[in-house]
Specification:
The protein is built from 10 helices and 8 strands. It is an alpha/beta fold and 296 residues long. The radius of gyration is 23 Å and the shape is globular. It starts with a helix and ends with a helix. 40% of the residues are buried.
Length: 296
């Protein structure tokens, strides 16, 4: 026989269950354009945010072609985080097609832009390749989440402060690793010109047959020039990337005698369980691969 006490307990349980979807909906829906940005957002947003990336792990945002489902993702988001600097050439059309009312944030605002020819006007969009620049991304993301969700301001500030401390430690770690490499060996060949900010920050020279975008194929003249340079400067290693076809770099290695130094991660993280599932792990992986190749 049901008593009043049973009915009250049952009503309370139903009320609690019915509140669960509302709690899930209370999370701030944030859409990042690619996996590295999404990782930054997760570190700042914590459990107050529901984060998704348009361009997922191991995928190339340079040549991404949005699907109809992507317009719905943009429309459903409260905040959309973009890199800017021409990186997502498809993004303006996608936002217009979605009819989204989301807050659109450019995470590179305030960064000293590196100028480079090839694919994005004159701007190199790969600013995240410096941990000091990652600090700017994180500060912009923190401010955007706070503006969209003022109730979470304290949480976003605390998460950002903790993550910024980890980024400062990462910056020092990379500088220490580079300092151990003889100055005359600090040159590598990468697939496309994605490491200019890394070069500026840490003093490793990167030479690439492709420009800052993977959209255009390198010319035969560019490839011949790099082969000549490798031989003249005795550059010890060439590197593959997770987002590009390896055959060009394999050909360059065969023609010059330089060895494949491993795989670098430039524009995309790996899936969970991969070699670079987070930004910090990506940077650590890259400097470890570079150090091993240049010091052996």
């Amino acid at each position: 026989m049901l008593t009043r006490r049973h009915l009250l307990i049952g009503s309370a349980a139903l009320a609690a269950l019915s509140a669960l979807p509302a709690l899930a909906q209370d999370k701030l829906k944030v859409l990042a354009t690619f996996s590295i940005l999404a990782d930054f957002v997760r570190n700042v947003g914590g459990d107050r945010t529901e984060v998704a990336a348009l361009v997922g792990s191991n995928n190339d945002a340079h040549v991404y072609a949005p699907a109809p489902a992507d317009a719905k993702k943009v429309a459903d988001a409260k905040v959309v985080i973009t890199n800017g600097l021409g990186f997502e050439g498809w993004m303006t059309r996608l936002v217009q097609a979605s009819g989204s009312k989301a807050m659109i944030i450019v995470a590179t605002k305030g960064i000293a832009v590196r100028r480079a020819a090839g694919g994005h006007g004159d701007s190199d969009p790969h600013a995240w390749q410096s941990a000091a620049n990652a600090n700017v991304y994180v500060a912009n993301i923190r401010d955007a989440l706070t503006a969209a969700d003022p109730a979470g301001a304290d949480a976003y500030r605390a998460h950002a402060a903790a993550y910024l401390a980890r980024l400062d430690a990462l910056d020092a770690e990379v500088k220490q690793a580079v300092a151990a490499i003889p100055a005359d060996r600090r040159r590598v060949i990468s697939t496309h010109d994605a490491f200019g900010y890394f070069q500026q920050a840490y003093g490793i020279e990167f030479i690439a047959p492709q420009g800052v975008s993977t959209e255009a194929e390198p010319s035969a003249r560019d490839v011949a020039r790099i082969i000549t340079q490798i031989k003249r400067q005795k550059i010890p290693a060439v590197f593959l990337e997770n987002i590009t076809d390896p055959r060009l770099m394999q050909r360059i290695a065969q023609e010059t005698g330089a060895r494949i130094g491993g795989k670098l991660f430039s524009d995309a993280l790996t899936e969970e369980g991969g070699e670079a599932p987070s930004y910090i792990e990506m940077m650590r992986h890259n400097i470890k691969q570079i150090s091993l190749a240049l010091m052996s």
